[in-house]
Design brief:
The structure holds two protein chains of two kinds. By secondary structure, chain A is mainly α. Helices cover 80% and strands 0% of the residues of chain A. Chain B is α+β, with helices and mostly antiparallel strands. Classes of the chains: A mainly alpha, B alpha+beta.
């Protein structure tokens, strides 16, 4: 028993002739380890903040003092021109729709391709069992490339518009879903697949009729969560690259003073959209996973 | 009777299922058709610049050297990528360029030969003939075998030739030849370094026992310094940028975890002193998450200026919202028996939290924090592009110039490696810490 709990080496085993001493010894050693980890962690955080502070253009304390300057300025101007805001909502609605559409298409397409990738990289289900590792590496690589890299390179080739963002977010979604979906599919019951095999079903039929009904609730739940993430990603990509409400926000910010009512309108639209989508998807995810 | 009801309910279920089985794909198809037209996919083919794609792909893995003659002064310069920092010093040039007085010969390989001389310039293309260009009365006269193929573009002021061995441009003010070669040139040593053009064996010999190039320091130190300060590739800046990106992710994630842990207690239903407190804190977390990283980043960069601190704070605030929510959920799901056991020894609230609660939730919190650390490394690239710090800034700058694609390729490789390393590091740490 003692070996099972405390490890096989006799030297590390506490001397049980004096249990109190042995217990205190163990506690002391744990405390020392914990203390060392804590000191290293604090040192890393402190020096990290110092380096970041040193390499930043403005200092932390100065920034803290003027943290509310910009929001105050924006809100002040937004309040002064509050009559414009409803009209601006209508004006920015198409680009908001574009941002949400980018997220929706890339989630949809990414999840469809991700599902195929996931099934191909799941042991026991794969069409070509020897290529499982290859497909896993493919989804790792797709996940590793940040969306902004693909989007900016594609803007150069495809010109502006929403398509580069869709491809960038879609590829990332495909990689992420390839991993998450595959983890779900690994736990699927193989009996329906065996049944389908016995009647001579093809691989596609086995997956469609045997696996998909089992994993659908979990997959849908992950897909909804990914949609939330992708709406945010699509807004950010618009700000860095082109298309959607992020781009309008960048233009309004570049105009600076005088167009802060636009900034306010975009902030409110973005906040409400993200909040609404989060709540809706949270609600449906609860229903999917808990079944009520 | 029973059978009739059963049959009816089964038929209904089947009808519903059949409707879903055809309805869902049909809805997806309708949506994609709508997207096809709103996103103007038919127009994409026209807007797509495949020539840009070709430039990009060839620049990713090759470099070009410009051999330029200023027609007014007759000065010939040889420059890698046409940049000043890649210019060969006066009197030196690569071995495929030969100079003899006013005559410059550029050998593009496989018999493709370009000659600049006092009369003008000539390009010998094997299998086609000689393209001879001379300025006559302020215009360019072309003598070439007819019919002139479409890879030679001719106008009054400019004659351009593109072959698979290089490009050639003649305008009134200058004549240029571009030669494409595989590889990233000057990656380690620039032309002004004494170590340029030496093979790995030569360099190893110089490190081990060669005479000191610079008497003040060893050859190895000189080499390291030359690579670090390489003006073409800026390795030093790139390493700092990568470090800044990882730093942003680390500080942001860990700072958020430290702030969210105590606040998570206040937002958990079984720890909050009053319902109102719990409600207030969970709404605060909802608000912080709803405002979105993009808006926080913009507000923060106005206050703190560009740099890694701003990026770290942006990640910190965004993650405080998501950590607060997950931590509170983890705290609500703990087992009360351990807390009761600690309470029976007369422990106060803080001690109960430390010894009864924290050990239970540590694995959940740790895995969440480490997962976010990895995904924030990716976000830090994008946030860096917005706040102006880290590798994201270098990447967007290189992309905006639209010509340094080899640097873009270099940064992409580094970013992917960085993310993969953080991925395996956080996975390793997770296994170490959680399994014990």
């Amino acid at each position: 028993m003692v070996e099972l709990i405390l490890g096989p080496q006799p030297g590390q085993r506490p001397d049980l002739s004096n249990p109190q001493e042995a217990y205190l010894h163990m506690v002391r050693r744990k405390r020392v380890y914990g203390g060392i980890i804590l000191v290293v962690f604090v040192a890393l955080m402190a020096s990290g903040f110092q380096i970041a502070e040193h390499r930043n253009a403005g200092s932390f304390l100065d920034g803290l003092a003027q943290l509310d300057d910009f929001p105050a300025e924006v809100l002040h101007e937004g309040w002064a021109n509050r009559a414009n805001v409803p009209a601006l909502f209508v004006e920015f609605l198409p680009s908001l729709l574009e941002t949400v559409n980018i997220a929706a298409v890339s989630t949809l397409v990414g999840c469809i391709f991700g599902a195929v990738l996931a099934l191909l990289s799941t042991r026991g289900l794969a069409r070509w069992p020897s290529l499982v590792m290859v497909f896993r590496r493919i989804s790792d690589a797709l996940r590793a490339i940040p969306e902004v890299v693909i989007a900016l390179v594609l803007v150069f080739i495809l010109g502006g518009g929403p398509v580069p963002a869709v491809i960038a977010i879609g590829l990332h979604t495909m990689g992420a879903m390839g991993k998450l979906f595959s983890e779900v599919a690994e736990n699927a019951d193989l009996k329906p697949v065996e049944g389908l095999t016995s009647v001579g079903a093809t691989w596609g039929q086995k997956m469609w009729l045997g696996i998909l009904p089992q994993v659908a609730p979990n997959w849908l739940s992950y897909a909804l969560l990914r949609f939330e993430i992708n709406v945010r990603a699509s807004a950010i990509l618009g700000f860095v690259g082109e298309g959607g409400i992020g781009h309008d926000l960048k233009l309004a910010m570049q105009w600076g003073q005088g167009s802060y009512d636009q900034v306010v309108a975009i902030f409110i639209l973005l906040f409400m959209t993200i909040f609404l989508i989060d709540q809706l998807s949270g609600h449906y995810r609860n229903r999917l996973v808990k079944g009520h | 009777m029973v059978d009739a009801i059963l049959t009816q309910s089964i038929t209904q279920t089947f009808r519903k299922r059949r409707l879903i089985a055809f309805g869902v794909p049909a809805a997806i198809l309708v949506y994609l058709t709508y997207i096809f037209f709103t996103f103007d996919l038919p127009g994409l083919a026209q807007r797509a610049r495949l020539d840009n794609a070709a430039i990009l792909l060839s620049d990713f893995w090759s470099h070009k050297t410009h051999v330029t003659r200023d027609n007014a002064s007759g000065v010939v310069t040889v420059a890698i990528e046409g940049e000043r920092k890649g210019t060969y010093a006066e009197g030196t040039h690569p071995d495929w360029v030969t100079r003899d007085g006013d005559v410059t010969r550029v050998d593009l390989g496989d018999g493709h030969l370009v000659t600049y001389d006092a009369a003008g310039a000539r390009y010998v293309v094997p299998g086609y003939g000689t393209i001879d260009i001379r300025p006559v009365d302020g215009k360019l006269a072309l003598i070439a075998p007819t019919p002139v193929p479409d890879w030679i573009s001719v106008s009054d002021n400019r004659i351009a030739v593109t072959t698979d061995h290089g490009r050639f441009n003649y305008t009134r003010s200058k004549v240029e030849t571009f030669r494409y070669q595989a590889g990233w040139e000057l990656f380690f040593f620039t032309l002004d370094s004494p170590f340029h053009g030496k093979g790995p064996l030569e360099l190893a010999a110089m490190v081990l026992g060669g005479e000191r190039v610079d008497p003040a320091r060893s050859n190895f130190a000189a080499m390291v310094s030359d690579v670090w300060t390489n003006k073409m590739w800026r390795h030093g800046d790139v390493v700092w940028a990568l470090f800044e990106t990882v730093l942003m992710a680390f500080l942001g994630t860990m700072g958020a975890a430290l702030i969210a842990l105590p606040l998570g207690f206040l937002a958990a239903s079984n720890f909050a002193p009053f319902r109102a407190v719990r409600f207030a804190f969970s709404r605060v977390f909802d608000f912080v998450r709803g405002v979105d990283g993009l808006i926080w980043t913009i507000i923060l960069s106005r206050a703190f200026g560009p740099g890694p601190m701003t990026g770290a704070l942006a990640i910190l605030i965004t993650d405080t919202g998501s950590f607060g929510k997950t931590f509170a959920e983890a705290l609500e799901n703990i087992d009360d028996k351990q807390v009761e056991g600690i309470r029976s020894t007369g422990a106060n609230g803080l001690q109960r939290a430390r010894f009864g609660v924290i050990p239970q939730v540590t694995p959940v919190l740790m895995s969440q924090v480490l997962y976010n650390l990895e995904s924030n490394t990716r976000s830090a690239t994008v946030i860096g592009a917005i706040v102006g710090g880290g590798i994201g800034l270098l990447l967007t700058q290189a992309i905006i110039t639209q010509k340094d694609w080899e640097e873009v390729a270099y940064y992409i490789v580094l970013i992917v490696l960085m993310v993969m390393m953080m991925d395996s590091f956080s996975g390793w740490l997770r296994r170490k810490l959680i399994k014990g």
